[in-house]
Design a protein that fits this description.
heterodimer; A: alpha/beta; seven-stranded parallel sheet; 7 strands; B: alpha/beta; 21% strand; globular
Chain lengths: 343, 329
């Protein structure tokens, strides 16, 4: 079965549908805050206050927002190195995310993890993994634990289109399917693996969805620039997982507005491609959606202004925060909190 | 007190821990209904059922990854990697995922799991099913690394590994599965990071691991009988944590250090011990530290060639006698 889901139907004026106004406003807020926070991360990088590398989700915010709003509080997120958006979407404070990017003591991991490894167990973000494909089997393990202990949480695993060509992707899908694990795999197909178009190096048109049937799964493709569409398929997949129906694989079609990482100006893209996708900017799309549902410009403007204020406040906190203390260097290599490998 | 084989001790150790703690689960290829390709897990599936003893596809990344995801969210998985050589196809988990989780997350998560794996040569399996890879795992910060040499140590160290809150790589030696030894009744729990002096001696310290322990003990008997050398033999048992106190204490008494290693020459575990001894007890030494290892080659399949490669009792005796007593003897 192939599902093509979009949310293009016109709502009745002022009415709400199956999603509801609260969730819609939440999805808009998350998209705006993720966008603003990541743009600030980029600015801070240009000021040499964010070091190392960073991989932004500019243009892909609807996926993080749509999935996060469909999740329950106990659900687990497994992210990639492009994980700022998913981390923020689970409610992790901006200052902890920016603090980690800025290598400050107030960062999520006090500077020990960095941009590619954002983790907040408290918020259900069980790690951001920087080796392509590694976290798909790990998410399976978390789902196995839930199944084994009779817990109702779902493990959600985000990854890019490039991941669909590595072995761990295929091992994990088979594994999840045969054990009927409560795990949802979400492929963010932004059309480029790093610099190379995914279509140039993949045997099928839809890198995730076209592989689903090999593992007994439905082929699900969704407009990844429409938070409502993402929300609806995610909600259905989570319901299936919680009901013991096993895993789902969702391919979200989207586009990365910036390069792969901070080092990449994305000059490999054909002229006009970015401009075409900017016309479908998920935040602009969603702002229009809210208006169609009767949300006033003023209410939307308040969300926009709050977001900017939050980013400014978080930035100020992080700039004032001290760097991580030197004693952290050898802390927590082993579970006793230390690093001793000999007596 | 029962007389158990090394392979029976594996099943006994796992069963002891599964009986004690419902969070302990076991997964791997052919480990359940078939009882394992080495028959080291016979009876576990019958006793603990499908829910806790799970057969997997041939997917080493999925096995280790799933074990990790379960471990970091509350279970205590034991994963079997059928042959240790297969570590190379799932090395990401061993090198990048298990050992860095706690550090990178600033202690937010731990990874309490055991990967037990058939390690080592002597079974004529050829180059891709015979390696001693304990040094591959020793060099990674965040892992613990164990390699028992006797049935009783298998049970006790397995229990210690399962109860440890860190990822533990548990190297079982394929050529030891058939050996037998006494194992006391009742619960056995050993301690990681403790070496054992198996033979006391005054003239030289021989440090060995896994299958090399028995050969070192045999060599010590020959050295005493034929060369008048009284050697102390230490079973390292645990490479991480490493019991340097026991090893260095012995070297300070005997003035001589020999390592007997099955791994190929370069970067074997003995090199680390030699380096520590050279740093810390150099002035107690009466002669050079000597490593007796497999040459730096892949292992051949043919029995006479494999026997030439692995350190033999005769080679250990010859090397130690020449170094201690001089080349004239």
């Amino acid at each position: 079965m192939t599902t093509r889901t979009t949310s293009r139907r016109k709502p009745a004026a002022g009415a709400n549908d199956d999603i509801g106004l609260d969730d819609r406003l939440e999805m808009y807020r998350l998209q705006v805050e993720i966008r603003d926070c990541e743009k600030r991360a980029h600015d801070l990088f240009l000021q040499n206050l964010v070091k190392g590398t960073s991989h932004l989700s500019l243009g892909q915010e609807a996926i993080a927002a749509g999935v996060a709003v469909a999740m329950e509080p106990g659900d687990k997120s497994f992210c990639t190195y492009r994980g700022h958006a998913h981390t923020l979407a689970r409610g992790v404070p901006m200052e902890q995310v920016l603090g980690e990017l800025m290598q400050r003591d107030n960062g999520l991991m006090r500077g020990k993890g960095g941009s590619m490894h954002l983790t907040s167990v408290e918020h259900g973000v069980l790690g951001s993994y920087a080796i392509i494909g590694a976290h798909l089997p790990i998410a399976c393990g978390s789902a196995w634990r839930a199944q084994y202990l009779g817990e109702k949480d779902v493990s959600v695993c985000f990854f890019g289109d490039g991941t669909t060509n590595i072995g761990a992707f295929h091992e994990a899908l088979n594994f999840a399917s045969i054990w009927k694990l409560p795990v949802v795999f979400i492929c963010e197909n932004n059309l480029y693996m790093e610099y190379t178009p995914i279509g140039d190096v993949t045997a099928v048109e839809h890198p995730a969805a076209d592989r689903a049937s090999a593992y007994g799964l439905d082929s699900i493709i969704v407009d990844g620039n429409d938070a409502d569409a993402v929300y609806r398929v995610a909600r259905e997949a989570f319901r299936k997982a919680r009901d013991g129906g096993g895993p789902s694989l969702i391919e979200c079609k989207t586009y990365r507005h910036s390069g792969h990482s901070r080092a990449d100006p994305a000059t490999y893209r054909p002229k006009g491609e970015l401009e075409e996708w900017l016309k479908r900017d998920p935040i602009a799309v969603y702002r229009q959606r809210l208006i169609e549902f009767g949300v006033g410009e003023e209410a939307i403007g308040r969300i926009d202004a709050d977001s900017k204020r939050k980013v400014d406040e978080a930035t100020a906190v992080c700039k004032a925060a001290p760097p991580a203390p030197a004693e952290l260097l050898t802390a927590d290599v082993y579970s006793d909190g230390g690093w001793a490998w000999r007596n | 007190m029962a007389e158990l084989s090394y392979r029976e001790a594996v099943a006994r150790g796992i069963a002891q821990e599964m009986e004690r703690d419902d969070r302990v689960v076991f997964l791997g290829e052919d480990v359940g209904k078939a009882g394992g390709v080495f028959k080291a897990t016979v009876g576990l599936h019958e006793r603990f059922g499908d829910r806790r003893v799970r057969d997997t596809p041939i997917s080493e990344q999925a096995i280790l990854g799933a074990a990790m995801g379960a471990a970091m969210t509350g279970l205590r998985p034991i994963a079997e990697l059928m042959f240790s050589d297969f570590a190379a196809v799932c090395f990401d988990y061993i090198a990048n995922e298990f050992p860095k989780l706690r550090y990178m997350t600033n202690g937010q998560m731990s990874c309490p799991l055991v990967v037990r794996t058939g390690n080592g040569g002597g079974a004529r399996f050829g180059a891709q099913h015979s390696q001693s890879i304990e040094n591959w795992t020793m060099m990674i910060p965040g892992l613990k690394v164990v390699a028992p040499s006797s049935p009783v140590d298998v049970v006790g160290l397995m229990a210690a590994a399962v109860r440890d809150d860190n990822p533990v790589i548990f190297h079982e030696h394929k050529s030891l599965y058939a050996i037998k030894g006494p194992v006391p009744d009742g619960e056995i729990v050993d301690t990681l990071g403790t070496a054992k002096i198996l033979r006391a001696g005054a003239d030289a310290t021989i440090v060995a691991l896994a299958m090399m322990v028995g050969r070192a003990l045999d060599a010590a008997e020959t050295l005493a009988r034929d060369h008048g050398l009284d050697c102390e033999v230490i079973d390292v048992r645990s490479l991480v944590p490493l019991d340097t106190q026991t090893i260095l204490g012995s070297v300070s008494r005997t003035g001589r250090l020999f390592t007997v290693e099955e791994n190929p020459r370069l970067c074997g575990w003995g090199a680390e011990i030699a380096s520590i001894a050279a740093d810390e007890v150099f002035w107690d030494l009466d002669g050079p530290i000597v490593r007796i290892t497999t040459p730096h080659i892949p292992l051949p399949a043919a029995d006479h060639l494999e026997d030439l490669a692995l350190p033999s009792v005769a080679r250990i005796v010859d090397r130690i006698a020449r170094v201690v007593n001089g080349s004239s003897q």
